[in-house]
Specification:
- The protein is α/β, with parallel strands linked by helices and 291 residues long.
- It is built from 13 helices and five strands.
- A five-stranded parallel beta sheet has the order 2-3-4-1-5, sandwiched between helices.
- It starts with 6 loop residues before the first helix and ends with a helix.
């Protein structure tokens, strides 16, 4: 059931399973694209003894004490199998001191310990750690493959659905497959897939925004975003607009589409340096409405 984002990764995973071994791995990319799932699948398919597997979420256990008390202590015991596996979730949240300790430890224990690191922002990982790993970047999967996967789930669960509505779910949730599946479950309790009825969360405002883009109603789009998007979600908004701006009738014109992309890019840059991201995004939507 796993959706591979490219054939190079699929071939590498097949080889690891066939050889019954893995190198140090660094899996990076946007959330919801299968990094953690792949790590868990590799651990399962290679049939590691549960006593040889340690999973740590670095977003909550991120300091040097975690390295000393958990990673070093776990690695000191003899492995039940060929080697031990340490699955470090959100490794980009590990503190600089903890990462510095980790890079040397990875070299010292390479004969009997393997690390699987997953993260969203690979630039926060020390270059010395990256050089010790095989890196795979997870981009969004093929939307046709995602649609096939979601249709299979809906059919298995006996949920009736309209293809155009399913396309809306994919456009609104892409590339986060996990979010799409959760939204389908949330909105199909009656046995038939329904559009979301509430606005006010990252999982729902995009449905309304997509409708407003398709209708060229930019003033209303600005009001929806300013009332629904939290301070940590604005970068998702820029990506969503970039991927769906051509759904607007006026931006099907290539010249206007290019102008719109330049406006989005300009305000995405300003987002990193501005004091108020909401005002910056409101300015962008006003400009898009005036093109």
């Amino acid at each position: 059931e796993y959706i591979f984002h490219d054939q190079r990764l699929r071939a590498a995973v097949d080889r690891m399973v066939s050889d019954r071994t893995i190198p140090h791995l660094l899996l990076s990319g946007v959330r919801g694209t299968g990094k953690t799932t792949l790590a868990q699948l590799l651990i399962r398919e290679l049939e590691f003894d549960p006593m040889d597997v340690l999973t740590i979420n670095a977003s909550s256990e991120r300091g040097i004490d975690t390295f000393r008390d958990k990673i070093k202590s776990f690695s000191a015991a003899m492995a039940m199998g060929k080697f031990k596996v340490i699955h470090l979730e959100e490794a980009d949240k590990f503190t600089p001191d903890a990462q510095k300790a980790l890079k040397s430890f990875m070299e010292e224990t390479s004969e009997y310990v393997r690390f699987i690191l997953t993260c969203n922002n690979v630039n926060q990982i020390l270059p010395e750690i990256r050089s010790r790993c095989q890196e795979y970047f997870f981009k969004g999967g093929d939307q046709n493959d995602i649609a096939e996967y979601l249709i299979q789930i809906l059919a298995t669960e006996g949920v009736k659905f309209d293809l155009s509505l399913l396309d809306t779910y994919i456009a609104s949730g892409y590339p986060d497959v996990r979010k799409m599946v959760n939204l389908l479950q949330q909105n199909s309790l009656s046995g038939e897939l329904q559009p979301p009825t509430a606005v006010g969360s990252a999982s729902e405002y995009k449905f309304v925004l997509l409708e407003l883009i398709e209708a060229d109603r930019w003033t209303e789009a600005r009001k929806v975003l300013c009332s629904s998007v939290s301070s940590t979600e604005w970068e998702d908004v820029y990506r969503f607009l970039y991927e769906n701006i051509d759904q607007s009738p006026k931006f099907t014109n290539p010249a206007k589409w290019e102008e719109a992309i330049m406006v989005i890019a300009e305000h995405l840059y300003k987002h990193t340096i501005c004091a108020d991201p909401e005002i910056n995004a409101a300015s962008m939507l006003i400009q898009l409405g005036r093109i």
